[in-house]
Amino acid sequence: MKRIPCAEVSKNHVDITLAPEPEKTRRLSFFKQNVMKMLDHVRKLSPDIVIFDVEINFGSDELIGFLKALKPGCRVLSYEDLGAWWSKSLSANASIGPFPFAQFGIGNTYATSWAPNSGYKFMAWRKKS
Fold it and tell me: Both ends of the chain: CA-CA distance in Å?
């Protein structure tokens, strides 16, 4: 028996529940809000994938906390080079510790609103254990 996805929608959040079989339920959540306000969601939802399609400023304690809170194995697709960003942040605050991600694959190019034809190269990361 096939189940039809169920969606819950609010102003800045969409949840889609996919249940091809009752024991294999998966949830796809989209949030459109300030990532600095997402730490509680990260701890609660334990995401497998996070996409950053925005520019980030180095040294943000909230963003460092967000990235550290992601579970091992979580994949991150980012607009910016998180390794370089972390290095700049580390030089400003040595207590943040080593960079907890490994880059995998070569940055893929995706169509964006600012480069719909040529695309923009995003970077792919995996949270270390």
Answer: 37
